[in-house]
Specification:
This protein is of the alpha/beta class and about 260 residues long. Helices cover about 45% and strands about 10% of the residues. The chain has a 7-stranded parallel sheet with strand order 3-2-1-4-5-6-7, sandwiched between helices. The longest helix has about 30 residues, at about 100-130. The protein starts with a strand and ends with a helix. The model has no long low-confidence stretch (mean pLDDT about 95).
Length: about 260
Amino acid sequence: MNPTALITGASSGLGYEFAKLYAANGYNLIITARNEEKLQKLKDELNHIEVTIIPKDLSQPGASKELYQHALDKDLTISALVNNAGFGLNGYFDELSLQEQQDMLQVNITALTELTHYFLPSLKKAANQGLPAGILNVASTAAFQPGPKMAVYYASKSYVLSFSEAMAEELKGSNVHVTTLCPGATETNFFKTAKAENSKLTSSTMSPQMVAKAGFEGYMKKQRVIVPGRVNRVSALAAKFVPRSVAARIAQNMNSANS
């Protein structure tokens, strides 16, 4: 019996790369995202394993429950949950659309929390059956400091990191492990979606293949927190010692456009 991984945001970027990595390591997949056409293309590409497509827009309230119910109705159980879906917005808080920021919180925080709650019994059952069971949550180096001009995004990723570390401790005796991936700037559609293509953050990026590989390997090793890239690791460590006000100013500068 092959283990099954559920991957959100699987149609592109890190989610697409995670799908290929889990498939290459013997996992069947449940993949979800808004774009059904891209999901079907990925399924066709990964034709050596079982792939189930469940198109969902996780920014819509209730979508997480619908996704879970769909899996339940099809008698699909998982042993790996990859909460990868998420997006950011660049700009001052009061100048950005409130609705767009609420949608971001729905995806980055609420859907991730709901899916973890819904699928945790399945993960525990898989662990009891001897299958490798765990959760891989995608946060960001943004989780380590406040981020003016992307205030809600940074705060949402701080939640993901804090929640994931707490869950890792709660589940310590259950054989279900929790890994948090905290990448820095990555060559995906993130900056286009965030309207931050000209920000200084884009001056140094990692490929999605490298980031996903680091995340997957860390997950398989049951590491709790992974920060890919030496510069990102130094930055994350420095944020623990720099005054929060200074860290906020640095982040604001990085989130601003190149002059």
